[in-house]
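EI: anyone free to look at a 293-residue chain?
SC: sure, send it
EI:
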Amino acid sequence: MLESRLLQGCCDIHLHVAPSLIPRSADIVTVARQAEAAGYRAIVIKDHHYNSAPACDQIQRYLFNGSPLRIFGSIALNNSVGGVNPYVVEAAINFGVKIVWLPTVSARQHMEFHKAGGAFPSTRVALQERPITLTDEKGDLKQEVRDVIHLVAQAPDVVLATGHAHAAEIEKVVEEVVSSGVKKILVDHPTFGLGANLEQVKCWASLGCWIEHCGTISAPEMGEKGTAISAIADYIREIGVDHTILSSDYGQAKFGNCIEGMSRYLQALANTGFTQEEIHKMSGENPGKLLSL
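SC: here you go
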């Protein structure tokens, strides 16, 4: 089947698994085994509340030793890990994270979007949250954000992802990244929850950012709160295949199997006219470059 061929060599850099404080469809070992069976090259485990690198390292070493599948961890700089904290980031880089995500669930933009019914899953237990912003009252990038960016600049194999901040904050991050020497920067799902427009995203891509589009955003379960697959296809054509990363963002309990979700997503994009080679570039080759594979 075409959809199974599309999964060959996939590098999904945005997967959610159990254990997690948010209900998930499967645990990390189950998802890794399914990804291996489907012919994936790599997966990156993203959790909003802890550094997943140590667990990924142990699973790779003891359960997937010799496997062609690479399993990587990441960290999201939310309140549960101390927010935008350079000391936490320095430790995480030395633990082997592949991606440092700027605040996601603790970002002020995310919290306001979620409160307004943004279709984002809640934690199983109530957590104390303070809204995190990347800029100060003058609109300047906060010093701790600059410090984190410069730490990532010294680790060329680590990706800096912009998280769920508002587009105006992302603008400031991109400006700093361009001048600081960060080699790899990823803008998360710009059509969902960030308040970004196409011209901004085009500019970010022109400055060297990778633009990520996630499968869950167009999943049927999202209904009218999601982004139509045709709109994502149009966005990709405007930005260009060479600057685009296709991730699943699957793992939410209501969405079911992560691998099947990615398969449906890639097939849906193929149905809009993208060739198999273009799909492979966006889901395998481009994210593989981000992971230094």
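EI: Residues 276-290 form the longest helix (15 residues).
SC: 👍
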